[in-house]
Amino acid sequence: MPNSATPTHCPYCALQCGMNLTPLQDGGVAVVERPDFPVNKGALCGKGRTAPAVLASSVRLTSPLVRSGGTLVPATWEEALDRIAEGLGRTRTEHGPDACGVFGGGGLTNEKAYSLGKFARIVLGTSQIDYNGRFCMSSAAAAGIKAFGLDRGLPFPLEDIPKTGCVILVGSNPAETMPPSLRYFTELRENGGTLIVVDPRRTRTAEQADLHLMPRPGTDLALALGLLHLVVAEGRVDEEYVQERTAGWEDARAAAMAHWPEYVERITGVSVPQLREAVRLFCEPEHAMVLTARGPEQQSKGTDTVGAWINLCLATGRAGRPLSGYGCLTGQGNGQGGREHGQKADQLPGYRKLDDPAARRHVAEVWGVDPDSLPGPGRSAYELLDALGTDIRALLLMASNPVVSAPHAAHIEERIKSLDFLAVCDVVLSETAALADVVLPVTQWAEETGTTTNLEGRVLLRRRAISPPEGVRSDLEVMHELAARLGGEKALEAGLEKGFPTDPEEVFEELRRASEGGPADYSGITYRRLAEENGVFWPCPAAAEAHPGTPRLFLDRFATPDGRARFAAVSHRAIAEEPDEEYPVLLTTGRVVAQYQSGAQTRRVEELNAAAPGPFVELHPRLAARLGAAEGDPVAVVSRRGRAVAPARITTGIRPDTVFMPFHWPGEGRANTLTNPALDPTSRMPEFKACAVRVEAVKS
Questions:
Q1: What's the start-to-end Cα distance of the chain, in Å?
Q2: Is the pLDDT of residue 545 over 90?
Q3: Does the N terminus or the C terminus of the chain have fewer Cβ atoms within 10 A?
Q4: Vertex 115, ends 114 and 120: CA angle to 5°?
Q5: Is 687 helix (H, G, I), strand (E, B) or coil?
Q6: In 3D, which of 204, 223, 389, 192 has the Cα closest to residue 308?
Q7: Is the pLDDT of residue 544 over 70?
């Protein structure tokens, strides 16, 4: 590695692949392999390889913008910051603190996420803060906390996957969403293990599977219950484990026994022989895992669905044992850390609960404020967005693009347009930023130092490799300046201006203290350790001798008061919107390999656009024949909420009763115009993965 290379991490998905950045003569950087980082061992996908393209001044914001006469025009930083402080301050004075909303993103570093939550609660005094990570793995988080007392995406490192005997991969397509991770599943099979993929589409990942189950979208809960029924009926329950390490088995068992195989076949479309084969493959090896992703989680019953898959692990004695257990594949780059340190509506740093008096006292002491001054829990992400322009009159938004990514997106766009004031901090002029009153250009991954937490719970150090363009500042600087403007004399006397440092390591040192003793305890982690150890797994409490971190959770006990895992007594129920005569087909959504999330950044990279230039509608040949649609013909997908048009992609790799659309694009192919905002009652996750639609041929 050249001496001038900077070791850092990819800005995109939750693998947080290691990479080295080397300087170029034009002032930019090039990506080169970093084989010493254990997660990807040098491998990178196209998004990671091309990530420096978005650093170019030609594709990103380099000056603050303010709205004048209906148009965004360049402005000075002082003018832009003053405008934001005036807009937020006026709203707070005239309508109260909760009329100010804050919306964050799963791409923010831990330092930024921590500061944003602190800013919302002690500068604005608002309870109305949440983030787009609510749309990522909140259902898995809720189910994990119920079952294990703690939520960490994977309770074991990725390196354990190839060593297990069987993996059931539910609603995940890592071959496209996080390609470097596919090698773990390839190695699993090379080592004699088996891979079962649950997906209504024959994805690139499903093509690698030993067994591919294709359930009807929205029926993953019934599928998991049917498998557990067979585990009981075939005498495969680990009775000793259940008795010693779990609670609630009898009720969960009774619920599962109501889901006999033929009944589950009728609901899911998965045949009884396939159900039996899945149980055999999962139960026969000594070790096995269930991994879920957005498929079962982005449902109005996502928490119960994940709970049912956890039940399967508990009944067979898998959870909390080496090379076994349940895990969730986090999506966004810092989706894990982003919800641990205060962006979420109901949480304080360290994964503490906002309504816990002890948690409030601890964090308030670190912040130097009265615990009673902290607001209570606020609205979840969709509910917050839905309240814009009514209860919430002004919004500060960082690192998110809900005009494209939120469910019922056209409705959310209208809510955003109805705001009295909108300020956006972003790297590019996204579709949401284009609606703002003020837009601030902020630094990117290669231009700043900070920490993220990957899908394994491994806290990592991203290092600054280059200076940002002139006119660009960090989000930490933005919050520092706004705190000074909005705090007033009282706040300045209390040290609030100093309480928003611009140095990320100084912020992290405060985060360590705020998280100490909490479920996500980072107090034993330092920048020095992160640099020397290639990351540290939380929890890592401070100790006289350095705590090694915790790569594997629950081996001795679960994080519940009595140390036992909890079964979930859940039963199948229908999705919020079943097909009918008017809308007879199911829509499901997802990602493609060359684009990321709302596409705000990746759509600006020529190489990625060439590989995935626009949206499409994937449909089965039988459905295409009924429509009279050929490959590439425009088809319209219509739901009760909107209409999207995109070219047909005809394949036998999808169920005949289902169509698929990727959600990366705005315009007439905006998939989230169609999706259903029905919310899970526990996680408040919208039902992205299943809604009723009709498909129409578009006449030229």
A1: 56
A2: no
A3: C
A4: 105
A5: strand
A6: 223
A7: no
